[in-house]
Amino acid sequence: MSDQNRLVLAYSGGLDTSVAISYLKERTGKDVVAVSLDVGQGGESLETIKQRALDCGAVEAYVVDARDEFANEYCMKALKANAMYEGVYPLVSAISRPLISKHLVRAAHQFGADTISHGCTGKGNDQVRFEVSIASIDPTLKAISPIRDLSLTRDVEIAFAKEHKLPIVQTEKSPFSIDQNVWGRAIETGFLEDPWNGPTKDCYSYTDDPAFPPVEDEVVIEFKQGVPVKIDGHDVTPLQAIEEMNRRAGAQGIGRIDLIEDRLVGIKSRELYEAPGAVALITAHQELENCCLEREQHRIKRDIDKRWAELVYDAQWFSPATQSLNAFIEDTQKYVSGEIRMILHGGRAVVTGRRSDSSLYDYSLATYDSGDSFDQKSSNGFIDIYGLPSRVAAARDVKFGNGIEVPENSVE
């Protein structure tokens, strides 16, 4: 049963959403329930954020350590799909929004709210991701954005905080807009809005400069049905695997991305990303699939992976199309088990070894040495049948004078 006098706010603990608590109550007349999730973004503790929300006027504060849930149910789906939007971006923000939306809806049900609020602008992708996800879970809930819908600009926020004596410590504003979680980090705005300007070292936090790397780092990652389960022989959870590869690949400057990106709302945007763990794990997972997926299945999956990334980027995590693709992708992973050895160094993750009991690589078929079990005489009949359509078509072209012209040899 919803309460017309309550709304749920996606609360980060920063200036925007702290001011939004009192601002929303004043402008809408509704009490605010603040919802905060830890998805591996680092920074302040959930308890600190919870207390700040209450001090800023929230009637309730709902906080969740969602790191394992995010890694297990969201990052691993992206890994199995080798998800890279436009071929390079590992969907850092796009995969966290459905999880956050799910907990926003859960809080709305728990606390009897009829409205959900988020802090997105009208130019970005996340407003669509939040609101489409919320509507997909519970279409009876309303959604609003104080920045987009209530003209909540930064100067208005600061004046409002001073006037209402809100317990917010003002610090120097970062020149960038940053969103981060355990899967990666997104950096935009400021001088990066001119695509001719190169990134400066203060843009980066998850990665060190690849031009000055430490000694190369060899790592062995073991997968079971598409999920990393061991690193260098020790057991890891999905969260631990991402965190360890963030640290090791990040030290080598792996996973820096500079992209002119096609946003869902129709704008081209210049984005920087850091995703060292995601890039290293996807690189390893793709190579294991090279060994373990049957040829036609693998060809189809490459197309499916691309569409999956586009759908998730475009706010379709909960859509029937994405759910159907998930079923196909999950089925492909039943034999994606084994070990991948990689060298991490100077911005690159290079696979140097593969080993799998379920690999379709057959040494006796592939070798050119003694012990070769491939019957090369079989290729004669294969070529004859495989080339038959081309020969028939070529004969027709010759009959009607449209054959391919072959230049005469010229000898001087």
From TrEMBL:
For whether the record's keyword set contains Ligase, the answer is yes
Which CDD domains does the record associate with it?
A: ASS
Q: Where does L-aspartate bind?
A: T121, N125, D126
Query: What keywords sit in the KW lines?
Result: Amino-acid biosynthesis, Arginine biosynthesis, ATP-binding, Cytoplasm, Ligase, Nucleotide-binding
Q: Where in the cell is it found?
A: Cytoplasm
- Binding positions for L-citrulline per the UniProt entry: Y89, N125, R129, S177, E261, Y273
Q: In which pathway does it act?
A: Amino-acid biosynthesis; L-arginine biosynthesis; L-arginine from L-ornithine and carbamoyl phosphate: step 2/3
Report the record's Gene Ontology biological process terms: argininosuccinate metabolic process; L-arginine biosynthetic process; urea cycle
What protein name is recorded for this chain? Answer: Argininosuccinate synthase
- Gene Ontology CC: cytoplasm
Which HAMAP family does this one have? Arg_succ_synth_type1
Task: Provide any one GO MF term from the record.
Answer: ATP binding
E.C. numbers: 6.3.4.5
Give every Arginosuccinate synthase-like N-terminal domain span.
6-167
Major subcellular location class: cytoplasm
Q: What reaction gets catalysed by this protein?
A: L-citrulline + L-aspartate + ATP = 2-(N(omega)-L-arginino)succinate + AMP + diphosphate + H(+)
